[in-house]
Specification:
single chain; alpha+beta; 3 helices
Length: about 70
Amino acid sequence: MSEPMRERGLDIDMSSLVYAGERSHVMEYLGGLGWQVTGVSTTELFTEAGFNVPDLSDEGPMGEIVYVSATLG
């Protein structure tokens, strides 16, 4: 996963950013703690902004990214 990113000039060690252990879905977890949570997919963001939606067929094992926003209360 890191190699294609390096080819595009982004030198990030993806293995240091990913937690492989058991975890909860962030939206469900925060919602259960009283946060107001919304999630927007990459496709939705591009569409709402009036941009052409990029080809996401090569997203790999992570699938389409969802951008999460949360406010306590």
